[in-house]
Task: structure prediction
Amino acid sequence: MPELPEVEVLRRHLDGVLRGRRVLSVDVLRPRLVRPTGVEALRELLVGMRVHAVGRRGKHLLIDGTDVNGNGGERRIVGHLGMTGRMFVDDGAAELPRHAAVVLGLDQGRFVFEDPRQFGRFHADLSAIDDMGPEPWDAAWTPNTLHQRISGSGRSIKELLLDQSVVAGVGNIYASEALWVAGIRPARAGRRLTSDECRRLWAAVREVLEAAIELGLRARPDFASGAGGLFYYGESGAGSGVEERFRVYDREGQLCSRCGGGIQRLVQGARSSFFCRGCQS
DNA sequence: ATGGCTGTTATCCG
DNA sequence: CCGGATAACAGCCA
Result:
């Protein structure tokens, strides 16, 4: 469940259940996911840490705390869900998921990070968030900075939106959705967008992400249960009655809700894009 | 049942 | 600088 909205909804949940907790033990079942930093560095950072907040940077989760045993130094763990990662806190009674990667023993309950495809990360290395672009709601991200950032590029605007140094947190689904809202075809070269199109796209990115966060909060997903924790907004609210209907994503061959045109799929950079032939230019 | 798809991203090569 | 291919991996679907 990995674009910015899903990560943000999870962040709020984890912040509520992890804040104030102490980490007593670290169990790494899949060391692969703890690279590039090794398991030892992770354990040193975590054991004895008290969580004071869970944050987010793009699609990365940040677990911040202080060392309560030693000098009270600040500590930060960076997690990424990849395509299929999950994180939850439970009481430790249930069996661990098959693909559990990192388990933290807490003073109350336990934290579990699991990821079937093992594309996720959980480590002490901060380099992943070092040269990331602005958050969509950052004052540093404006229609103008977007325009400047892409105006020299011949790459397609769809691929540019997926580039985390352009803006943080947009993934494959919401890139297509934002381009539909802005009325821009995904294959257009970045340098060929007008400043007005950049303004529309800038607003569309915020709008689409905001709406998805709202939806995710309303869905009140059950992060700890297997199927519920893996809910994806486009499918169903996992029984919550909340449903998101994408405007174009995964709707090849269907009709556009805005103009009645046909929705088409194309492949860019080995990923599917979806757009309406009628009202995106 | 085999192959083709999937929310991410790092890296390599031409 | 770019685009494209590949690779990490499991699961789902037709």
